[in-house]
Structure formats: structure tokens, C-alpha cells
Design a protein that fits this description.
Strand content: 15-25%
Distance between the termini: 9 Å
CATH architecture of the largest domain: 3-Layer(aba) Sandwich
Largest sheet: 7 strands, mixed
Number of strands: 11
CATH topology of the largest domain: Rossmann fold
Strand order of the largest sheet: 4-3-2-1-9-10-11
Number of domains: 2
Amino acid sequence: MDLALFLDIDGTLLDHQAHPDSVTVDETLRGLIREAYAKLDGALALVTGRSIAMADRLFLPLELPVAGLYGVEMRLKPGEPFSPSEEPKALTTVIERMFGLFPEAEGVYFERKGAILAVHTRAAPHLLDGVMAAAEEALPELENYRIIAGHAGLELVPIGVAKAAAIERFMGMAPFKGRRPVFIGDDTSDESGFEQVNKMGGVSIRVKPNGPTEAHETLPDVAAVHRWIRETVL
């Protein structure tokens, strides 16, 4: 098997939940990923907006290559140490102000991920416009940051951090090097990854797209992703 498989987590391997801590990985999915990892001789990595620590907790006892926080954190091989991301002081100030504007009791959830802030509005979609406006107002206070809008919320992310760079880094080393890259994701934050694998002559797949996408192929839902892995890799 000459594929190198890169997988997003939320919305791709797992269905979105109102709260990001509500997701769980069952034994069926854990077994599927374990088998695919073995079949690909280790050329499988998670490329996610979650931290590496959170990805590990979800897939325990599996330990996989992971690009966490869009590549802010990188574990190139299982067992290798990595440096957890720390929260900059300027971002802390912005978070504290936004806490006051959007109490979590109203359904907005602030996920603090070191250098990245994710604001989830899945449980309060009517507040998304206000959250976006507040983030745009705060952006000048953050040096070299950008806003990534998602299905149900947004993230404040350092400029230059993108899934494309993480995939490119993996592809430069064994066991990924020399294989055909495949990236499966579901959100706007995955578009740079699609562009990267397209440049490399790979396969780009977006799950349930709700607008234009750089992905060359689509899948309707998470269950279809599991089937694709089972039928294509195993």
C-alpha cells in the first residue's frame, strides 16, 4: 500500500458534538485506525485542531503521529517527545474580555488550546455573529494572528500555522516519504491541507462540504469516512 493517510478528527472520524469534550472513540473506530496504521506501515497521522494530549486521550491506548493545533504541536513518530503549546499573554487578555461578553451559560464555549483559542457556538448559533465581531475587534491586539471561521464557531490562530505545512513536514520523512498523500477533512481549516495534497498529486476528500472546496472528492458523512478507510486501506 503506497498511500500516506492524513486524517482530521472532528467531523471526519467523529461526529461533531455541541461540546468538544463530549466526543468519544469507540472500540470499533479505535480498531479501524489501529488496523489502518499497521496496513500502511505507520504512514498514518492525525492532523487536527485538537492538542496532541487531547488526541491521545481520545484514542488511548493508541499513540499515533499527530499534528496538533494545526501543526503548532508536532509528534512525528509515536513515543517521541513534543512541546505542548503555551498561551501568550496577549491572547489571555483577549480571552478574559470575551468571557465577559459571552458567558458560557449562554451556550458559548471557549476552548483554550495554548497558542490557539477556539470559540464554539454550536449550542448558541444566534451568537456566532457577535462572537465573530468581537474576535475581529480583538485581532489587532494579537501579533501575527488570523481568524479561521468554522461550521459553528471560530478560532484565533497564529499566522503561518496551517495543516498544509504539517502535511508537508510529514511527507518529507519516513514512512510517509515517497507515498501518495491522502487527506480527509471536513471544515474550512482543512482547505490548506487539500491544496497541499493536490500539489503533491495526492487525494483530497472533504466530508459533507457546505460550500466551495479545494477537495477533489467528497464523502457524505463520518460513517462514509469509516467505510472509505475500510474499503481502500484494509
